[in-house]
């Protein structure tokens, strides 16, 4: 405050702290239902994990092949066989590293040289991040 002399600013501040969960700086969210695509390049692990908050909703993932390896290229279809939104087991709750699971397919069965696009469907939820990894 410019009206308070600098000599009076001493002892006027407080140390404060804000705590957030791991990797929760920014998110994409939907108050009802929202979908978006992410250019995921190639599979870099045997598992796919997501950082989500969907206490009153859910997050589903679909996996599609891109037409080529260039960033932003189109996808060939809505999803690969076994990797559609309907095949995905919905992820609920508040989880920093939730594994993405499909009813009849597994991430580790996708060829490593396939250029991929991840499609996310949020229903009253937030997604902060995704990551390839191993259990």
* General form: elongated
Give me the strand/helix succession: EEEE
Q: Helical region count?
A: 0
What gyration radius follows from the Cα positions, in whole Å? 20 Å
DSSP summary, beta strand count? 4
The chain-level mean pLDDT equals 89
Q: Helices and strands: which structural class?
A: mainly beta
Work out the strand percent.
35-45%
Helix percentage:
under 10%
Note the gap between the termini. 52 Å
Q: Any low-confidence stretches, pLDDT <50, length ≥5?
A: none
* Biggest sheet architecture: 4 strands, antiparallel
Q: Order the strands across the largest sheet as they lie in space.
A: 1-4-2-3
Q: What keyword list fits this structure?
A:
135 residues, 44% strand
Structure characterization notes:
The chain has a four-stranded antiparallel β-sheet with strand order 1-4-2-3, with no helix packed on it. The mean pLDDT is about 90. Helix content is about 0%, strand content about 45%. It is mainly β. The protein is elongated. The protein has no helices and four strands. The chain starts with about 25 loop residues before the first strand and ends with a strand.
